[in-house]
């Protein structure tokens, strides 16, 4: 099992010193990676999980946050949970992600993309909410094309994106994995067909969660997928066994205290409980590409 941490600027703010210190301590504890969330924009009345979202929540731009983390750390992998893919043009995004991977010496390895759940956010971004799934599918294909080594460049003709003989440099230092996040069967299907892993979210019943993971694996065929889930900072060894029995390969935990000192204590206690090793650098694997 791999363990990563989540840093949400909606809870902890965007203070650069706090972000750097949190990431450095997580790295020293031996956590594999750090994830940051995304909201592009909020509108009065937006709700998530039945709760209205305050419009003043300080959602930092995830790729900028991770670039800052990369400069302040040495080993910890960089992740998004999730990057709202339909609201980015993939040609521009390909270059940004590859640049972060190069500057971080190959640590942009936990990229997780989703399609978003707020119609008002799509309107603000100028995207038809009903098409966001198809846009995401095309964007994943475009990213992979632009990161390939085709001598004549990449060409693509789809419903939303079209270009011919385009070259995009720099390239990622090695094949850059794309994980898919979500809590629906559509997300699970997308993960199996196009992704390198499934980051399952949502408050789902056990049967539905298992069905989604089975669907992702079925769509993946003979490829092996990472299976990431949210976990508790108070996780026990017995609970860990239950996750492992479900096929989970990575757990992402978040601290429950707004106090930096208590956050460090919680991360340290978790690392001690599961004997994380800070002396072992995180070496990203190179998954087989989706067919």
Automatic annotation (TrEMBL):
Its EC number is 1.-.-.-. It comes from Kribbella capetownensis. It comes from the Bacteria. This is TIGR03619 family F420-dependent LLM class oxidoreductase. The keyword Repeat does not apply. Residues 14-217 form the Luciferase-like domain. Pfam families: Bac_luciferase. One of its GO terms (molecular function) is oxidoreductase activity, acting on paired donors, with incorporation or reduction of molecular oxygen. InterPro entries: Diverse_substr_monoxygenases, Lucif-like_OxRdtase_Rv2161c, Luciferase-like_dom, Luciferase-like_sf. PANTHER family: ALKANESULFONATE MONOOXYGENASE-RELATED, C2H2 FINGER DOMAIN TRANSCRIPTION FACTOR (EUROFUNG)-RELATED. NCBIfam families: F420_Rv2161c. Keywords: Flavoprotein, FMN, Monooxygenase, Oxidoreductase. The keyword Cell division does not apply.
